[in-house]
Every structure is written in C-alpha cells, then in structure tokens.
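Board notes (copied after class):
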Amino acid sequence: MNNKTYIFATGNMNKVKEVNQLLSDIDIVLPQVFGITEEIPETGDTLTANALEKARYVFERTGKACFSEDTGLEVSALDGAPGVYTARYAGDQKDPVDNMEKLISELSDHSDRSAQFRTIIALIESDGNEHLFEGICHGSIAAKRSGKKGFGYDPVFIPEGFDLTFAQLSQDVKNTLSHRAQAISKLLDFFRT
C-alpha cells in the first residue's frame, strides 16, 4: 500500500468524512494546511473537467500529490440533469433541501424516475501525472425525502436493489455500493499497484 500523504482538493466536510472512512490507510490533508482557504474553482461543463480543474488548482499551488472528485446526479427523464450542476441545482446557495424539492417537483409528471450518481476522481501524482477514476451507482428518485443520514441528495436517491434511500441506509452499506465508494476502490487499486 502506498503510504504517501495526499491533499484532498475539497472544502466539503461531508465528502471529507466519507472519503476518510473509505481511505483509512491513506493520509489525507486538506488544502487549508497549505494556505489554500479560498473556494476551489469548478467552472467546467463536465464532471471530469471539474475534477481535473480542482486537482490542478491545488497541485499548481503546492506541487504535492493530490486528488479531487466531482459528483453528479444524472436523472434520465431530465436528460441527465442536474448533472454538473448537482450542488447548485436550485441556485448558488447550494441548499440540499431546495435542490431535492426542485428535483421532486420537476419529476412530478414523469413515470421514469431512473437516475444514477456518477463520481469522477482526478489524481495528480507528485510527478504531475494525472489519472481518472469513475464510479457509478444506478437507482431511482423517490417521490419524497426519507431518512436522516448522509448528505446532499441522499434522502431522495434509492440505490438499485434497495427499497430505502441512501439516507436510510447505514454508512457501512452505503460505503459498499455508492458511486464515491466505487471510484475510491479504483483509486485504492491504483495505489496498491
């Protein structure tokens, strides 16, 4: 196993908590340790572009190995929306409840509620080499919010094979099947080789 320290290019503490559980053997530090306290830009029009932009931003300022991730909820009936705009679907305030209510409202006339969460992780090694890892979790959107666990859209996303939302499932179960867990698993496989 690789015993390096990696900078996780994010300011989202919910993601930090989840990724720390999944990468328990890897030392993770946040950009603030290196004086990066501003919001890391994500202006791309794809998840891959955003993940790379965030990792490159931190790498250019530190020269240290780092990774970032961008996650989108892609809903079939909405032609893949909210997609790259998942966090700010209902506005720049990035309010999860507003986002979920907008999503539920927009799906009210649709029978197809299929959706997927997709995560892209961008890793930049200390030599500047870049690598991408993808995780996808298929599921559907619930008619109303249920559950108190997790964050973001977890109260409305029902993973395939389950009757409960991510917010109703235990973190251990979520960590075996989520989009982020799948992408992290590929990252770990890369570290091991």
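Comment from the instructor: Residues 5-192 form a domain with the Maf protein fold (CATH 3.90.950.10). The longest strand covers residues 130-141.
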